[in-house]
Amino acid sequence: xxxxxxxxxxxxxxxxxxxxxxxxxxxxxxxxxxxxxxxxxxxxxxxxxxxxxxxxxxxxxxxxxxxxxxxxxxxxxxxxxxxxxxxxxxxxxxxxxxxxxxxxxxxxxxxxxxxxxxx
Length: 119
Known about the structure:
The chain has one helix at residues 2-21, and strands at 39-41, 47-51, 55-58, 61-63, 70-75, 78-81, 86-89, 94-104, 107-118. The protein is an alpha+beta fold. The protein has a five-stranded mixed sheet, with no helix packed on it. A two-stranded antiparallel ribbon has the order 1-4. It is extended.
């Protein structure tokens, strides 16, 4: 009976050790980004309705996330922010083109949104 309990304890210790090993930092397994690589991860609808005079928060995810990506938000071609996440109040009714751009090295990528502002 003691041998069975010792065997169970050893088995559980081995399972636990294996589980802890799988929690190691895997950043070493991630590939390095090239000097011009940049990605935008976004699932927002390309057309959105928002309310005039209400704060809008539009978070973005870019990669790499090491601070090497320059971000820009443009409203009908006019720069309104250099932040990755936009906090903005639309003060005029109408339909506008909102563009997010991410740049790294000599590569710039972007995504457009049609924003319809209502009362």
